[in-house]
What we know:
This protein folds into 4 domains: 4-74, no CATH class; 219-515, no CATH class; 518-552; 560-806, Ribonuclease Z/Hydroxyacylglutathione hydrolase-like (Metallo-beta-lactamase, Chain A), CATH 3.60.15.10. An 8-stranded mixed β-sheet has the order 16-15-14-13-12-11-24-25, with helices on one face. Helix 5 (194-211) runs antiparallel to helix 6, helix 6 crosses helix 16 (457-475) and helix 13 packs antiparallel against helix 17. A hairpin with a 5-residue loop joins strand 12 (573-576) and strand 13 (582-585). The chain is built from 27 helices and 25 strands. It is an alpha/beta fold.
Amino acid sequence: MASGAGRLQWHVGMGAVAIGLALAQAGAEVTVGAAVVALVVLAAWRAATLGAVAAALVLCGAAAGELRLAAIDRASGQVRDGKRAELRAHLLTPPRPGAFGSSAEVSVTSGPLRGARLLVRAARWAPLPRGIRTGDELHLEGRLKALAPAGEGDVGSGAEGRSSFDFAAHLRRRGIAGELLLDGARRTGRGRGGLAGALDAMRARAERAVVAGMPQPDGALLRGMVLGQDEAIDTAVRDDFRDSGLAHLLAVSGQNVMLLAALALPALALAGLGLRARLAALVALIALYVPLAGAGPSLQRAGVMGLAGIAAIAASRPASRSYALLLAAAATLAWNPRSWTDPGWQLSFAAVAGILTIGVPMSRGLRRVGEELVAPASGTVALAAVRLLADGVAITVAATLATAPLLAHHFGSVPLAGLLANLLALPAVAPAMWLGMLKIGLGQAGGIGQAAAGALGAPSAVPVGHIASLAERCADLPGGQLSLPLGSPLAVLSAYAVLAAAAIAASRLGRPLAARIPERAARWRRLPRARRLALATAAALALFVAAAPALDGPGPPGRLTVRFLDVGQGDSTLVQHPDGTAVLFDGGPPEAGVTRLLRKAGVERLAVVVATHASRDHHGGLAEVLRRFPVGALLDGGDATRDPSFRGLLREASSRGTRRVAATAPLTLTLAGGELTIRLLSPPPRPPGPAPEDPNPRAAVALVSAGAFDLLLSADAESETLLPLELPDVDAMKVPHHGSADPGLPEVLDELDPELAAIQVGPNTYGHPAPSTVNALERAGVETYRTDRHGTVTLTIDAGEMRVKTER
């Protein structure tokens, strides 16, 4: 790659191989067509020989990709749908909790499926063993489920995005041969041996060290940032990172490799190692870190690019960043030719391409401006700070612009708040990553190292907490999400064409401005130092004053407000008084992210949280509510349940010193200076003995009153519970149990005579709301709203009148 022609040959060759690998299984017509296009285009540039070589490499790459895919898919043919299986397997990923249990990837070590990767689905009633770690060998029993043909896979909305996707295709991209619906699992007491076993032991020490000395939420975030393991991060927090444009921080990528090199090279130099020895040590660190952190597509790309750059330095040749990117593409596609269809792979490469094409020249320009403003006389530290800031801003802007069309294509929206969030997070990202990596390194030393890692817990929590706070604030910025559904590849290409044209235009318009920089900078430097400091301080204060209201979030409503929150198939109702008093009845399931809905509603603290009864779709989100908001009191409707997640909620309340009150009638709470009253009508105290199997009839039934306004909230308690009570006339009600079939509902409606009713319901297999319930509400003349159709339903009471606003 010494000459321009030589570099072109290497670039074209590597690009042709990558294209061929990506076209594996695209069909002979498409592959041959791509080869012909390569030949014709290069021949038109008077490089016919190079064109012939490129065409041949496209065909060879496609053939190699076909062979690789055949090897990956060989195990899929062994998976028989519905067949009983009993096998041993090594755990490949930590169990990830979900709505109905958990899931994890395993590699089978016995029987006909030996060597196959399976996705194990464990229901809550047949869980994976607690405390298992990557590399543990498990004895598994269950039913196999074959992957559906492309286009016929499970379609749903997952944590990776809001839009529907082909789940079977997603599994194929990961090299997974099928699923195992688990009936039972136990440890065998063995683990992997050899190099894989050594990596497992190192990973286990790293996992303990990275969270040592930190609160659980901060530790989980740092583990996600440094090791890519985000399964312990609360769903609401992951949603915050996604919607604020900071999700890339939880996906280990090239940024991690770059920061690892920046941390390691000075330390290796201080150790007295020569250049070659430092580079060799850095290669070993990267080669170790990539599998330790999960070896995802973006990290594979970063590792290959880092190793290519180090090799170029060691060979005393100029490193070609674009060639390293092509090499990384070819390497990752050679490992799995389907990688390019993964959104993470596409976003990773788009970000790097944007940094190379937009970020590098932008960084040079920003550096020039900064250096002119501070002047060399300001000292080495000031110049270094200016350069770091210029690089950080340029990389952030370039990566944000380059990934925007793909984000719009895959997820239907672009986080406009992402640019602001990433810029504000810049000062904290490197310290958080470096501290996390240092903790991991210390943890490998055993007991003393683990203790030292724990001592770094408090300092590590500072930058991590800053980033988490930014994600929380920026996720709900007004206008922070731009709905931009780019539904086709043509639309994506058109968006990139517009971005390219805008970048070229900006570059040309910026040249005259760049020519004036030295003159303007000289004027600035001639100003008295005190005046420059005053102007800079005034500008910073003006920026803070402008941004503070948006980052601070909304305040409480000016009128009494009831929100039937859209938490899917679950219940959560928020009552807010104008003086800031807020009461929450239930929190929906944990994956619904009720804390984000509370923040959007302007909640800063909760006077009372009511856990009406032990049911995951009611109490599941309340533990996170207690972690994220100050809570005055918890009304405990658990009825002495032994449900593990409800017991966890009570432990969370105890750990935070939240006062617990049994949610039993009769009980009256007076809030907001006597203007808001909550009266529990049911259940009465329970006689001694075990908790009932069905908690619904003993769910807390509450009457919320403010002036002449009355609201009945009955959770899942239906007519058999409600009719024996003294029911008053009410203005509004929540329909019991998500609108399930209830023969006594007409009589309940006759007693209550409500003007308005809300059914809190989401996609479900129970048939909620039942047609009989909908018909009963219509016959009673009750204005009815449903969260599955209307989203969050907001009821405002003003001068005795109810006003309704729906989310959609």
